Amino acid sequence: SSQYITGLLLAFPLMEECRLGIVGRIESKPYIDITIDVLKNFGYSVIDEGGVFVYNGYNENSIEEYTVEGDYSNGAFFVVGGLIGAKDELEIFGLSRETKQGDKAIIDIMTRFGGRIDEVGDSLIVHSSSLHGTAVNVSDTPDLAPIIAVAAAAAHGRTVIDGCARLRAKESDRIESTLALINGLGGMACSDGDKIIVEGSGRLRGGKVSSYGDHRIAMSAAIASLICDGDVIIDGAEAVAKSFPRFFELLDSLS
Known about the structure:
Layout: H1 2-11, E1 18-21, H2 29-41, E2 44-48, E3 52-59, H3 72-84, E4 89-93, H4 105-112, E5 116-120, E6 123-127, E7 135-137, H5 145-154, E8 156-162, H6 174-184, E9 188-192, E10 195-201, E11 207-210, H7 215-224, E12 232-235, H8 247-254
Helix pairs in contact: 1-2, 3-5, 3-7, 5-6, 5-7, 6-7
């Protein structure tokens, strides 16, 4: 898990020097890149030597102010919401174009679905779009998988989401909880090993689903309601508090 590596990297400045070697394939590498970028901004030098991270104790300077970037992982829900919602366009601001965040991939992924997204300064202008199925690999951006599955249900045709192995070790088994979400709202989704396959028809029925205590499943279900003919009831909706306490308040202000 990249989170363990991030924790160790953030401990580096407490030591004079350190080398951290990773055995096997590194999962979710872009999240590690974010950590190294933050350390760099605070003057610490961490060198990535292809799976071996080296810190030599050098601190170039210290800073008194730091601007935290907008979060593409949470922004992704509103990117998809803007594409499948009734409004002609939605502006999402505060997202850096120069970010190291791997979840910025949501822009390219949704473009491949046929979505129209314009980047203007630090804003995204998301236009209501007709989507079509496509193939996606989320091995480096696993947090995007549930909301991509919602986009797939809103699209027409088959979408294959590959590289989902890490999803089984998240706040829920996100392969199973994502399937339960789509199928529970009247869609068609199944798994094939580490793949999630969604047969999109453009609409969902609605219904009652569980968040499985997982913030990203709860938020995905709420965005899915935009294409549902009936109400969506989310059991355990309070799970959004983990990463986005004002999510429902913000969503309500847009709908």
